[in-house]
Amino acid sequence: MAQPKALLVRSPGTNCDLETAHAFELAGASADRVHLNRILENPAILDDYQILALSGGFSYGDDISAGRIVGSFFRHHLMDAVKKFHDDGKLILGICNGFQILIKTGLLLADDERGLPSSTLAWNDCQMFQDRWVNLKTAGEKCVFLQGIEQMYLPVAHAEGRFVARDEATLDALEDAGQLCLAYCCNREGEDTVTFPDNPNGAQRHVAGVCDATGRIFGLMPHPERYIDPTHHPRWTRGEGSDTGDGLKLFQNAVAFFG
Amino acid sequence: MTLWEVDIYPASGHVDRLAAAIVADAEDLQIATHLEIATAHGFLVQADFDAQHIQLLADQLLVDNVVEQSVVAPTGDPLLAKPPVNIYDRLIYVMPKPGVMDPVAQSTQAAIADFGKPAEAVRTFRKFWVGGLDDAQTERLVTKLLANDSIEQVIQGPIQLERLSFGTSQPFELKTVGIRALDDAGLERLSKDGQLYLTLVEMQTIQKYFQELGRDPTDIELETVAQTWSEHCSHKTLAGKIAYKDDKQELRFDNMLKETIFAATQQIRKTLGEEDWCVSVFKDNAGIVKFNDEYNICFKVETHNHPSALEPYGGANTGIGGVIRDPMGTGMGAKPVCNTDIFCFASPETDPASLPQGVLHPRRVMKGVVSGVRDYGNRMGIPTVNGAVYFDDRYLGNPLVYCGNVGLIPVDKSFKEVQPNDLIVAVGGRTGRDGIHGATFSSAELTSESESLSGGAVQIGNAITEKMVLDVLLEARDRNLYSAVTDCGAGGFSSAVGEMGEEIGAEVWLEKAPLKYEGLSYTEIWISEAQERMVLAVPEEKWPELEALFASEGSEAVVLGKFVPTGNLKLTYNGNQVGEIDMKFLHDGRPPVVRDAVYMPPAVEKLELGAEDAASLGNDLRKILSSLNVASKEWIIRQYDHEVQGGSVIKPLVGIQNDGPSDAAVVRPVLNSRKGVVLSCGMNPHFGDFDPYDMAASAIDEALRNCVAVGADPSRIAILDNFCWGYTDRPETLGSLVRAALACRDLAVALGTPFISGKDSLNNEFSYFDENGDKKTISIPPTLLISAMGQVDNVSNCVTMDLKSPGNRLYLVGLTKDEMGGSHWSLVHDKNGGQVPQVDTDLSRKVFTGIHEAIQTGTVRACHDLSEGGLAVALAEMAFAGGIGANVSLDNIPHQLETPCVVKLLFSESNTRFVCEVPEDAADKFEAALAGAPLAHIGHVADHKELVVLHGETKLLDEPIELLKQAWQAPLNW
């Protein structure tokens, strides 16, 4: 297949689009940054792309709550187009604010019986924006983006990233379905309790990322695009980290899916 | 029309975190112990909605039903006045005053419309239920913690409003000011009461100008002159005539800044000749230097002190928002790539009972300032990578907030020129009544009355509006749709249009400015400092494309007038001429400010040290590590996104646990290039108490050594000056400033390090009446910030300060002198006297070049500069950042002490010194790179976890690094 094309949605306050586009390009995709208004004017624009990516930032300033306003635009205007995109076997990725948007749309995790989201990304337990690196482990094989990845070391940078489901049953169901596919963990020898700051926001079951039932829609709070160069690692001057960066594989997986 | 109220509470089983934070703060500020409080936030929605529709909006838009629950009813409904639990007996609402920016309300109103029916108005609020407080306690809680009177209104009890009030339109009325007939006292009164803050001579000059014209000025003409001539816009004191005198010399300046700092840069550029790497200095909104073949980089640092004193969040928020617009308005527009923020506060431990009237508690100021910078920088998607915080009780009434931004600009977009008949186009945010008189207010001394007098000078930012402007601006730049751009800062349109049209002339149609609400007079439109606005000069034929581009992303652009080549500034409102001033008078008519400046060196006190002073060196070290200036700022740093834009190379926190103090930050602004920008700073207000010359020299040396320590090329470092001083009408205060400027000149020339931009903020004093009714004034210590922007060709050569591997050698580079004056050792011992650190520029040049070569050749595994706390603190920081100990001996340290004294060897703060970690097999190469510089092999990285320091056979320090780290981390771990 030809080089896959990624569409990066730009809305007022989106701000990780350039480096996320750069990551897709390094991984072998082509990437266009397209303003949300262009997609609202012409949802058929999605037909030209194989990957729809919502990058980090503060869409509409996190006003009301993070991701809420763009999520509402999606619900009102783009549901048919995005569902078709997904049904065509294509991929959707939401990073940080993109995850916050996806979880508000009902695309990633099914709405409850009242048509409202059954899970959310709430304010961090520490009540503050936090920029710090975290250890992550994957669970299951479902998520297309995480194929062949067991562990990653990536930065988070957010204030509203605490994954909360309405109740334990919701969590159990998601876990059983393999949708709780990425979790914060602790990699210190002899320790396995995960508390702040290993889990930087207090997420239930340490959830850092979830995928939909098909594994082709994925949302995560950590920033894979911020570790695609050896000098991104906070301890590269100590000789730590890898030559490519843990985050790149995630983008390569998206490209390989169409290979 | 109904005014609906939507109250949003944490859902049951979820913690009320805002309440928990208020309880903690109330205890800290001694307002109440065990406060009973519950919080909600919410929306007032004025619309023709029925109950069903508002409930739908609540469920689908306003409330997160997983973690929140809501109460929805029309205002006045008893449901809304029912406390969540019966222990609460008071209800308090806090909301933005009408006219104050409420960004969430704006977004919400737009999102509501997307549900099919528009709302007429939306306002956000916070709601507090409080129990067990009396009236006085409640009042204290509200004023000290819950609300800020300068921007917010407080409603006690249920909201009884039926409609949200906004401005109403006012009939046009041309106002003239009878200035021609006034006597001197009248002129002075007019200056003060009208918040013009001009001097008598300036007022007389204006009077004469209009006497000659045979008419009185209109209000807008007078305001325009006042804005243009304000200290903030014209820097008249430092760029004025100064007669300076100290113990050794008398100097006369026609333009002090030009003849010192600018002149130094000119001299350096001349010396460099073909190799000159400065591009545009001291003329645009930011200074520009070369980066690579494709791009230049620019840098600007501003202060936003007075607004931050009144409203820390809004002041700092708009401080960073404003300085980001400087690179955006430099040349044809630069892309902002990183931020730096430096703050000065009084101690957060200040007894709340001791605060003078009108002063916010330093803890509240600090929290507000940090949140303000955080929320704007993060939302703009610009990494905040460098900063510092200094504490001194003289910043109590006048905290300092320095914000800086680096921008990346294509080589061929680095200059601009307005063309005659270009359209004047305003883009971005709308104009409101916010920030009226900010420019002139910054010239005034703060008093306990400032809050009520100048509340309008405080602005609230909306970062997303600015981000939207940035996104389209760069696109418009690359499509060549305009011929010049500048930002609207202090003075608003008045300054922006006045500056752009200086050489040509301009006609402005004030009614064209988009307003946030009705009711602004033509003068308010002209001088409003509402945020997020920029002005473009657009050729008429490019206007349709530019207009369409801005509209395509929902950003507003309107034609406000034309740069008509008349040499005049003509202002009209709905066809009525409201002002006409000669550009020449406006820009060149200001009478020169002539000031005397005197500097008399204080008598040098000796600092006598005895054996008892060396009795508890370990304790001294921990005390210095715990002192607020030195202590870890991780609590702040983690709240800033320092990695967005994907170019992070050296982060502000480094080491084995990502928590050691980096000397400088490095970012790659161009993602497919290995070239890096290095950002650092230097400041030491305590040295200024001894000698402002040495303070300035030390700040420059510190900024450079921080930059060099991570790998920057010392021959490619550009620096900025930001002077924050007290009342410079006093000759001694101005004298200390001139003395610092002389040091800047001398150091820049000697080190070949050009200043490329700068800014000053004067009159940083706070006056109040104490309990006896006596007037007291607190002046800040002379505070010079030096910000450095360096470059590294290949970021892979950068190093960090954390120790790496046992067995590696440790070297001390540089000369240790008897310089304990202003040191942190003296500070924690409450001792005065001693010699303040000086800079030997020949030595600095040699050491910086040598360190750079050593790093470039790969011989250095870790490098850290010596600053506050000297050698002992540097070693401790390197050790705990690396999670590994060190064995060090002081025996061979190169020094100029009369007698080797261990306190001085450990804690002297002599400049231009580094500790380097060097592998055994690279030692020869390292020493060769530093040939000619004083250096000593002082020890090794150890395989234990203690910092062990010997002098002869005596063990001076044997400190577990974990305890040192705890001492360093504890004080500001909020």
Question: What's the quick description here?
Answer:
Chain A has 259 residues and is an alpha/beta fold.
Polypeptide structure, described:
The complex is a heterodimer of chains A (259) and B (974). Chain A is of the alpha/beta class. Chain A has one domain: Class I glutamine amidotransferase (GATase) domain (Rossmann fold), CATH 3.40.50.880. Helix content of chain A is 25%, strand content 24%. Chain A contains six helices and eleven strands. In chain A, helix 1 links the parallel strand 1 and strand 2. In chain A, helix 1 packs across helix 6 and helix 3 packs across helix 4. The model of chain A has no long low-confidence stretch (mean pLDDT 95). Chain B has 974 residues and is of the alpha+beta class. Among the domains of chain B are: 155 residues, 2-Layer Sandwich (Mth169, Chain: A); 246 residues, Phosphoribosyl-aminoimidazole Synthetase, Chain A, domain 2 (Alpha-Beta Complex); 176 residues, Alpha-Beta Complex (Phosphoribosyl-aminoimidazole Synthetase, Chain A, domain 2), CATH 3.90.650. Chain B is 32% helix and 25% strand. Chain B has 30 helices and 40 strands. Chain B has a seven-stranded mixed sheet with strand order 17-19-15-20-18-21-22. A seven-stranded mixed sheet of chain B has the order 35-37-34-38-36-39-40, sandwiched between helices. Chain B has a six-stranded antiparallel sheet with strand order 3-1-2-5-4-6, covered by helices on one side. In chain B, helix 12 packs parallel to helix 15. The longest helix of chain B is centred in the C-terminal third of the chain and has 21 residues. About 1% of the residues of chain B have low confidence. Classes of the chains: A alpha/beta (259), B alpha+beta (974). Chains A and B meet through helix 1, helix 3, strand 5 and strand 6 of A and helix 1, helix 2, helix 3, helix 12 and helix 15 of B.
